[in-house]
Amino acid sequence: MTATGIGAPVRRKEDQRFVTGQGRYVDDFNRPGQAHAYFLRSPHAHAAIRSIDTGPATIMPGVIAVFTGDDLAADKIGGLICGWMIHSKDGSPMKAGPHPALAQGKVRYVGDHVAVVIAETLAQAKDAAEAIVVDYDVLPAVVDTAQATKASVQVHEVSPDNTVFNWHLGNKDETEAAFARAKHVTKIDLVNNRLVPNPIEPRAAVGEYDFGTDNYTLYTTSQNPHVARLVLSAFIGVAPEHKLRVIAPDVGGGFGSKIFIYAEETVCVWAAKKVKRPVKWTSDRSEAFLSDAHGRDHVTHAEMATDENGKIIGLRVHTTANLGAYLSTFSSSVPTYLYAPLLSGQYDIPAIYCEVDGVYTNTAPVDAYRGAGRPEATFVVERLVEKTARELGQNPAEFRRKNYITQFPHATPVIMTYDTGDYAASLDKALEIADYKNFQQRKQESARRGKLRGIGFSSYIEACGIAPSQAVGSLGAGVGLWESAEVRVNPTGSVEVLTGSHSHGQGHETTFAQLVSDRLGISIDQVSIVHGDTDKVQFGMGTYGSRSGAVGMSAIAKAIDKVIAKGKKVAAHVLEASEGDIEFKDGRFGVAGTDRSMAFGEIALQAYIAHKFSGQDLEPGLKEGAFYDPTNFTFPAGVHICEVEIDPDTGVTKIERWTAVDDFGVIINPMIVEGQVHGGIAQGVGQALLEGAFYDESGQLITASFNDYCMPRAIDLPSFQVGMTVTPCPSNPLGIKGCGEAGAIAAPPAVINAITDALGHEDIAMPATPQAVWRAAQKARMPMAAE
Amino acid sequence: MTTVSLTVNGQSVTADVDPRTLLVQFLRENLRLTGTHVGCDTSQCGACVVHLNGQAVKSCTTLAVQANASVVTTIEGIAEGGDLHPMQAAFREHHGLQCGYCTPGMIMSAIDIVNRKGNALDEQTIRAELEGNLCRCTGYHNIVKAVAAGAQAMAQAPVQQAAE
What we know:
Chain A is of the alpha+beta class.
């Protein structure tokens, strides 16, 4: 390992600009002549629009234009799309209602887009929006996930009972047979609480149109600018693909919420041409709460069957997944193919059957949020495993160990084939770091102080490295999920890597440069990573699903291999040897068995000078591209152990210890990987203890600001003990599994298992706020009185 | 419109502003100092923290006119020439940032914590004092380490504090 190569904790190259305030986020861009957009949003969860009178707004000071859904329709601008087709059990396609960027005839959730005002200043646009007169016929709303299909309210005409799909996976008959012969069946009812992603940078967009060239430019807070360009051009029809440049510069966190193509950027690009001015929109936090895609929101009943030896023999799951008022870009895939295929967890379960009802409600669209389906699956599996162990009177760690998969590859009953792993190794290491053997002593010490101490396990698995294109195509994905890279070597030997991945906190400028440094033997200072601009990078699928290492870097590695191969041809001419005798090692091209060699940079120069070879035999220059399509998903897995102490008098849960042992395969930069783990755990702890998006019965979001929605703060969290085990991933050339979502996936069941362990009963839902825990603690104290 | 005159990062500035202009808008839009960020509209997230007369304030909840005749320091004003402020260097060294959006506010708050609480900060003090700053990326683990290390480093570099 070199100081800047693979495995080194290199300090991040991008940090110089971030710590000095020189980062460039979308809201930092101001274009000449720019006007400001403000969206009038629905105050009602469900209403027919009888009329919209924009007249009074258009004469307000500074107003340039006011547009409604009719204006978009007149220009034949299409609706927003959902890019993953799910088929119901009966083979019918999912029922997707129209999703106009600005409402047409109806609004379906509080925050739905009714009109846009474009004015000289944002303040003027806001003032004018108040002058728009909308005549609403307010309709009853359906909000509750579990009741959505029984409601008399119909969100979309296409779906009379609000069902988008009734989907299933696994083998029903085998599962029923397993339950029929089970010695013990454990049952659980779970709510996976709705969350708001809340990256600290709100979404923003600047649309621009050049009448001279007919070119459009969109600056946008996107995790995947090429996908945004493809959707905006090919499906929504705002601009031809080759005439639309999408730039996603520094982006301040995403966590999934910036994957999707939303109404606001669509309108900004379109309106820029209409008003002949650049148009800028920046979300404020209140808007973000209302209209960024939310996450999770499942209601689940699940049962686990065990035999007389305490082996898990069957799992059956029924989930109702709230998709909100419209199908967001990847929403349909999240509670289906990103969820049920992970229900085997780390366990050898011969029979699994899962049914999922996706439903419409009058709430914000729900889509991928950090983990996307996999936290929901892990919560089901790990709560059930814990409860089963307790009911069987077995130690929860040893019950897990007994049921772990130990032979690889392992085909689960829910379409995944795990390639590698060593789950017991992670468990052993976690037990050691957590000092599990002395837990009872700590519990007694807590009890002496009147406190309840509990310990909770989470043996999670996830499917990352999304994903083999043919495989996801067969499951309904609209596009393949490969990644592209181009490695441009300059005559001076410096290197630019153009990648289809996008960094919004992951540190790609450093880790990707480490790969180049490692492979080409040059300093990371000689490497620039270029991303987030469709005029520079030809195409890419973007960053989500912990895919940038396993897929994005594999594409770079493939391009580097081609650069080295080309370099050998150049070196053969320059060193006057046959190509087969040229070796590339430690940054030098050399002739085998001799001391003749030249540095990588010298060969790069020779490739461009092109004096030493015929341009007809060998093309000058040194630049190679690659598209990498993975052969399988990757399967990061690990064990997290949470230890809590509850004050039964106040209900406050304090996390005393957090142990995370993860197997991410080969690690490029351990400092960055540990940081990803920390951040993921914080979001998972947030879900378990603090966060919840709640609508009242009328569909008003009552947790719509940081005053009301409890974000994790520094004081809510402990320092984390992070350890690693490594089984290299055999499914990509670098052995990487991915690390971005692990913490958010592992954490919620670890916390709830710890709380229920402390309480001595299972009756607690997320978020386990002090109020909820206090009630549960009272129940534990006085079971008769509480019932 | 009303006129405001103040000192920002050592430079005197005077401008006519709409009276409702927030200090953060004035910094970002009038002075193009875009290192100070806006992450919420309820004075909760702290991405907008700057120093007003040496004390941390949330510039999203301060009117520009309130800063009249005052001294304001932003994230762009704390490095000395090419040398990072010790707190900036500590955030980089300890990986106390990921997306970078909350970072300017975090660093300005952290310096203020040191100014108020001294250079030897324990973990609980740092976590409690960071109540007004939200980070969604790091889980705070490395921010806490960075603040502790930055606080110690500031004791070795008194020049930086005098600069404010």
